[in-house]
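Today's session is about reading a structure prediction critically. Students often jump straight to the picture, but the first step is always the sequence itself: look for stretches that repeat, for charged clusters, for runs of hydrophobic residues. Only then move on to the predicted structure, which in these notes is written as discrete structure tokens rather than atom positions. Here is the chain we will use throughout the hour.
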Amino acid sequence: MKISVLVAEIGSTTTVVNAFGDIEDSPRFLGQGQAPTTVTEGDVNIGLNNAIDSLKKSLEVDKIEYDEMLATSSAAGGLKMTVHGLVYDMTVRAAREAALGAGANIHLVTAGRLRRSDIKNIKSIGPNIILLAGGVDYGERDTALDNAEIIAGLDIDVPVIYAGNIQNHSDVKEIFEENGKSHLLYIVDNVYPKIDVLNVEPTRKVIQDAFEEHIIHAPGMTKVRELVKGPIIPTPGAVMEASKLLKNHMGDLVTLDVGGATTDVHSVTEGSEEVSRILISPEPVAKRTVEGDLGVFVNMRNVVEMIGLERLAKDLNMNLERVQEIIEDYKPIPVTDEEKKFVERLTLEAVITSIHRHGGGFRDLYGSSGKKTLAEGKDLTNIKWIIGTGGALTRLPNRVNILKEIAQSNKGDKLLPTKEAKILIDDDYIMASLGVLSKKYEEAALILLKRSLKVD
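Below is the predicted structure for this chain, in token form.
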């Protein structure tokens, strides 16, 4: 069987391949195959080939030929980054937003000059990329330069992105040249060029470029790089790319992905003019948050603890003994109606908690002139579409009702989507694949996205 594009999603536990045909004329989603990821076996290609075999079975064919392969990856911990800036609420926050939006997992954030403990942490983390920022343009210079000297002198060979004060460009270049690491340095526009101005998109793009160029972050990935002729980007970054593409054609949206270990929230919205006038500090148009404690498999017990056993039993209309039996015999994919209801309740908790953490809220300040109401954080009130992707929100029976609870959960103090926001589900579970596909075939990706979401 001839396939136009095969997109591999190489995850931490599962590798999925999605097949697309007639990509330039009349794009079609042909089918999906999956298999366990084989990082522990020392070669992710084993899992990739097994997933292709699974695709053959689902398509009922003996042989598959494809014109090109693209990929997303979150294997071996995904894109591990450390972020280092000047002031936590300013350049550090801007750099962090850029890294998260590109699909990174941030393992360390520091403000000010790097200390000995910070250096030890960087070495023990072994990041795939280091992001260095600090100082508005034509502002403070020394902290970023000191940190550049320290990072360039470390005995680790990883890409370093400098996204700080524009005046430091030539000095940072010289520092890395002197340490024989100029090939690892990427210099981009400042993520925080002026007070209260965020400029995260240039850094996001370079993070993904650096990820592609230095893709050898999991066993066997060098072989995958030989197979993949097009882009390879972090899986969460691919979901963001798909979300941004949809926003440009359909309007403001938020995408939720409840997984086994984490819950990701991607919002793409400028917010409302009314809220922007009282906003304390700027927010990026495209924002991602990842909640490492909200997963419905690996972190299931943590979510159960958040709900409480007694409340969980009451919500599920079960006795405590039955709930504990389900917990002890918990499987990654629910089979019985009871198991599905259990996972749905965990998913609801993950959705509501993550969107409340992602979205901003109102604050009342009291001064000599009386009470003044201000807004802080991401404004989601202009959201027109709430999209569910990932295993839980594309496969559970009550997925639409779970997402409807977002608006119901607002007590009036949060900047959350309203009841007018429409619910869409990534029925084919291909949003990440279409995010990477959009890098080369934007029109086809948009057609396939809308088809999966069942919108015109």
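Discussion point for the tutorial: The domain at 79-213 is CATH 3.40.50.2300 (Rossmann fold).
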